[in-house]
Amino acid sequence: MTRRIGIYPGTFDPITLGHADIIRRGAKLVDHLIIGVTTNPSKNPMFATDERFRMVEREVAKMGLTNVEVVGFNALLVKFAQKQGASVIIRGLRAVADFEYEYQMAGMNQQLDEAIETVFLMADVSLQPIASKLVKEIAIYGGDIANFVSPEVREEVVARVREQGLKGDY
Length: 170
Hints:
Strand content: 15-25%
CATH superfamily: HUPs
Largest sheet: 5 strands, parallel
């Protein structure tokens, strides 16, 4: 019997409660879920790749999921999935705008390897508005991000805002 391996890729800058929801739910769909922490310089990350990797590892460990592994990568997603032996790419959707982009990416990935399926999970309704970009923006302007990230991630984001001398006022 072959194991179904899934990939949930992202920059996770920072990992949010929305990401955690997709991880929990995605882990139920596959035998082994690989959280692929990737680089994406165009997103102007607040945290370095190794910091994001450690953050995701810690948050996943707190979930107690035994079939989840965190792996860093800097490659074409389909190539990474092939290297990991994955047959499923899991993506979270929050809104119509996400769907348009993700639909296009799924089509391109299918063209590259039709054996790898993309599965979309709708974000929990209470978590739909959460986006890493907005979490960072709220923190930069001194807003409270406690409803969007874990307490540990909140501390790291607040510390980074202070460290970088951004506008946050806590």
